[in-house]
Amino acid sequence: MPPLPARRNWRVGRRVRHFDSRANPVRAAGDGAAARNDQVDSRVVGKKAQGLYEALLTEALALELRELPPELVAELRKLRPDEAADRLALHVARALRRSIDGVSHTARVKTGVALVRALLERIGTELGVEGDDTGDPTDAAIRNSTGEPTADLTADLTLDAQADAEPGAATGAVAEVDYASSIPARRRAEFAGDLAADRPVVEANVLTALLARGPDGRPRELAAPLIPLLDTTLLTNAPDEPRVGQQIAAELDSADRIDVVMAFVRRSGLRPLLPALRRATSSGRRVRVLTTTYTGSTELAALEELVGLGAEVRVSYDTSSTRLHAKSWLFHRESGMSTAYIGSSNLTHSAMVTGLEWNVRVSGARNPDVVEKLAAVFEGYWQGGDFRAFERSEFEACRAAADAAAGNSQGGAHSAHALQLSPIELRLEPFQERLLEEIELERERGHHRNLLVAATGTGKTVMAAVDYARLRAAASRTDASNAHPRADASTAIPRGEADNGLQRPDASHATSRAAPSTALHRARLLFVAHRRELLEQSRATFRHALRDASFGELWVGGEHPTEFEHVFASIQSLNHAQLEHLPPTHFDVVIVDEFHHAAAKSYERLLAHVRPRELLGLTATPERADGLSILEHFD
Asked: What is the pTM of this model?
């Protein structure tokens, strides 16, 4: 072992206050995954990044610390008995994974099993526990010529890994395999060096920080999180543990970058974090925040305060079913000790302090895949077009629109509180565009009864709204001379129909399938769903797609339409109505949400009566549990 580095810039025995997450059974979640990425080895320290660490002091790390520049101070502490089992096992797991990953792919399974067996046998020997080694043909693969178990990477092991690869090899035969030959030649020297470097120093010290010196030469302290950096744990705001707000505040000072995804941001939740956030931005550390206007909970004053501190804020104005509802914090640390919080707590006082909230604190060293995915998804949101840089005027306009929509949901199309539209237009994802292109192609082929099947949450209502808007836009570009009056003597026309510019088949076609036509200048619409909430959400989506704040009337509960031009109706209200008074061809476009219900009698009555020019069904599950078919309604 090399001599320990000179201690001119070491500090040993630093007191660190920690919340003991070992009492929580979730703390060790993902221990196996932690072995996948050695984030605290000498390569990280070799970059001499300032910050917090929880790195077992190995021989290689000790050499790195010996070469520290004078402006950095390494803080060490003794490995505690209560953490020894977890920390040492995690260290061995990382070394074992690197060893198995380094051998050739074909020999990896047998080699890995042999190494694990050798390791366990050695543990038994050291503890004075003899294992049962009778009759196992692989025993020769894990013992050397003296009969002692070995994990030496340069030893010759006898494995039967080649038996499957060599034709004619006897089943169960043990072939002599040079274990070292399974390691690529260019990696053997590295392997030997890695294993030696990974040996913990005898003193069992832990590197806790690399600190910069202040003008007076003293190290500038960094507040450590209440939860050890290596621990993944569940926080519930229980009486015997720190509140999630305290945990978040304790992470801020040691983070090199801070990314936040938060559905709701309010001043009450932000206020306790302001001093730490101000220290972060004033020292040049980047703070990025993604939030939403959903339900109007995010406060303008809170976002302005964040921007005033120097944080970058982007806002999603999407109020559809695909809106963002996530809550997470990501604390990037150049030391490799990044951490994240993912859970239910919005940035409000109740959620951060008093609420019954569940949040998982994830260690990037123990669960690297989770933290890496979180970082990648955040970056995708940040770079995508759904979030826009915060501007007061835009935020106020969208909040006003949301407030008006809430007031308008209980009124008809002529509510005194007309919807003020968001400046954000609906945009389709590529897969949504492809689906609408397929529907348009079917219409060009003469098929005007189509079923749109897409998984839950993929925006079927958005696609239907955009499709309807395109039908109307295409009709508005046609020559007005192609439009003909729809009224005729034999058909009862509701008020306002005769002069709306729509084409109407004559009486002889009143009960037949509607002729194909795209001349839908105003396109009377019937949108059918089975709940008020769905109808209100769908009407709001159509209003935004059409850029028409007064579009659509509700026909649900005790609410009735007055114009019957664009109706969002519940199937229950339609069934209670006297459909014989509604001309079958009155509605040009009929859209039925959750069309898999259509085989039910309530839907059958409606579908047997109406004769729209365009019928569009929306469903995620075209097969009904009772086996009844809905396909008869489509071309």
From this structure: 0.52
